[in-house]
Design a protein that fits this description.
The protein is α+β, with helices and mostly antiparallel strands. 50% of the residues lie in helices and 15% in strands. Helix 1 packs antiparallel against helix 2 and helix 3 crosses helix 4.
Length: 240
């Protein structure tokens, strides 16, 4: 008997349905885990405060490990929730000046670490038509990434610009620690890390969120880098 050929539209519809179900499950789990994690964190802190003097050094250290793990997992849950919200948020495109948004984000980062020397070069009148809330979140993820991985540089340098073309290619370039391009495929995966957590803290969802936002705008994102020679992230907002 001849096998019936799969209908491409049916296959795509089934894949989309599976994706939505998986996202719904992920959202539910991440949301419901927050309460027990707060309980673990709260009681562990209570034991440290009320019974800490009765514990030996090893016991206090073990409790601190529990607290650290609960807080990290709580951060991961919040990250999963933020990723899920990107897909459910309505997309409202409007004219947007990315230069002004970038200035505002970098001003906030400077305010948090006023002692750092960071040179910033932001091209004038970087225009786009995009959802203001979502694109601001994407730029926050990308600029936070550049700010974090230039922390060992004095001065650090962050540049935001555009390469014009049929579809403008925006870029964020830094002189930070960079990364090995052999691992570039892991960049945009949630909780994927190319550098150790003690060296560069963070949950690991900023780039994943930026990629999902840019994909929702019909664009794409990629990066080029070399170890200890900085990195450059490129993105478009609508494919030609």
């Amino acid at each position: 008997m001849a096998h019936e050929q799969a209908n491409p539209q049916s296959t795509l519809a089934a894949l989309e349905q599976s994706r939505r179900e998986l996202e719904s499950l992920t959202y539910t789990l991440a949301h419901d885990l927050r309460a027990p994690l707060r309980t673990i964190d709260g009681f562990a802190h209570a034991v440290c405060e009320d019974c800490g003097e009765q514990l030996e050094a090893d016991g206090r250290r073990y409790l601190q490990h529990i607290i650290d793990a609960a807080q990290r997992m709580s951060g991961m849950c919040e990250g999963l929730l933020s990723l899920a919200r990107i897909h459910t948020a309505e997309l409202h495109r409007a004219p947007l000046e990315l230069s002004a948004v970038s200035h505002r984000i970098l001003d906030e980062l400077r305010a948090g670490e006023p002692a750092r020397r960071v040179e910033t070069v932001i091209a004038d009148r970087l225009a786009a038509e995009a959802d203001p809330t979502l694109i601001t979140a994407a730029l926050q993820g990308l600029l936070h990434n550049a700010w974090k991985f230039t922390r060992s540089r004095d001065p650090a340098r962050i540049q935001i610009g555009v390469e014009p073309g049929a579809a403008p290619v925006y870029f964020i370039r830094d002189n930070g620690v960079g990364f090995d391009m052999r691992y570039a495929g892991r960049l945009f995966g949630p909780f994927q890390r190319l550098h150790s957590e003690p060296q560069f803290a963070g949950v690991g969802v900023g780039l994943a969120a930026a990629q999902r936002i840019i994909h929702r705008h019909g664009g794409r994102i990629w990066a080029q880098a070399q170890p200890e020679q900085g990195a450059c992230f490129y993105f478009t907002l609508r494919e030609p």
